[in-house]
Amino acid sequence: MNHGRVEQFDTPIAVYDRPATLFVSGFIGTTNLLRGRALESATHDLWSSSRPARSSRCRPDRAFAAGAAVMLSARPEQLRLHAEAAAGRWRVHRRLAVPLGPNTMHDLETRDGVTLKLVEPRLGPSVEPTGDAWCGLRPDARPGLFDIATST
User: Fold this and answer.
1) Among 33, 118, 125, 148, which residue has the least CB neighbours within 10 Å?
2) What is the pLDDT of residues 122-132, one digit of tens each?
3) Any residues with CB less than 8 A from the CB of 96 and at least 6 apart, and which?
4) Is 2 part of any domain?
5) Cβ of 34: how many Cβ atoms within 10 Å?
6) For the segment 40-69, what is each residue's pLDDT rounded down to a tens digit?
């Protein structure tokens, strides 16, 4: 509920994986929020925060006008670190890496000061805990994309 209004009524998994609103996205679980603009009048063309990026993995049930202010909501497990630049990736500074059992939690910062949380499996040798890297959406990620103008 948000100010006495039901924002979403669904199973816990659906609420976490497919939040209906930006409020629900931030209320249930941890999420990373990145501001940007829709590049075209289609859901699959995405946003730009620290650098232009495109994605075909945003919510298919939403359409945005070209240039509309949008907010991308990606869960920590929907992001991936990379050693080099490529389409759909943006530069981040790794501030901290903390092993949490079989996973590593990374605390990242974009060039424009947005803090991101990223969780990935600990496979093989440990990654350097700090320094610059590139961040992007995992191939299987389905982040939420919300119209900022209508979000409360």
Assistant:
1) 125
2) 876 666 678 99
3) 106, 107, 129, 130
4) no
5) 21
6) 654 444 444 444 445 544 554 567 777 788
The pTM score is: 0.81
**pLDDT for the residue numbered 64:** 75
Q: How far apart are CA 74 and CA 63, in angstroms?
A: 18
Q: Residue 135: which domain range?
A: 12-150
107-116 contact pairs (CB < 8 A, 24+):
108/133, 108/135, 110/34, 110/49, 110/50, 110/135, 111/50, 111/51, 112/49, 112/50, 114/32, 114/33, 114/34, 114/49, 114/50, 116/32, 116/34, 116/76, 116/79, 116/92
Q: What is the CATH number of the domain that holds 125?
A: 2.40.50.140
Asked whether residue 5 is assigned to any structural domain, the reply reads no
For the chain, the domain total comes to 1
